[in-house]
Amino acid sequence: MITKILKRDGTTEEFFAYKIEDAIKKAFKSEGVMYDETVFQEVLKRIEKKRVAAVEDIQDMIEQELYKSRYFDVMRSFILYRHTHKMQREHIYGLSEDTTYINSTQTIEEYIGKSDWRIKANSNTGYSNAGLVNNTAGKVIANYWLDKIYSKEEGLAHRNGDYHIHDLDCLTAYCAGWSLRVLLDEGFNGVRGRVESRPPQHFREALGQMANFLGILQSEWAGAQAFSSFDTYLAPYAFKDKISYKEIKKAIRSF
Known about the structure:
11 helices
């Protein structure tokens, strides 16, 4: 049974059937036609099969039921009503068709009040100012995915809860593994206009470059970053520096 309505900004609110009936009544009244409750009842039957229904889908159903009932003038009035409100939204918010409006005030207050489930979706991000920034940006990016990259049907299926597309809050790939050999052989470089480092000559230098590498790359990817053969490639540096097991352990801790 339906309990929620999916709004155009991607948020949900409690479902109230009377709002649908009011919209249908206004369309009949605008044409001076006696209200026919069967149109509302047919729409209600269709949406009650869903858990969550989108505003646009409900309005499509109203048009379809008006057409089936041969209330063509009422249907045209309702279509004009939809188009007029669409133009008003685009004028106010500067939106084009198929672009989701994000309510900035609601987004931030949901995070502060911990009412947004996304706060706990990422175990690597805590409840903090940085978390707020990531959450806010992530919501914008997620809606870009659903509006512009996925098809309309796929985006709607996600928003309706038919299935869940994970990690929509980043445009880049998820996890990545990197060659430690390349970093140790070539140094930390490759980005024009950025500070570069020559290949490390000592154990602690290697650890420092690895920490810088992972820190920078982490911000460019959605998920975890990793090196393989960590101990194998670092062993020659420990041998060259002739450091003890205790010193190695201390250096690894600082890393």
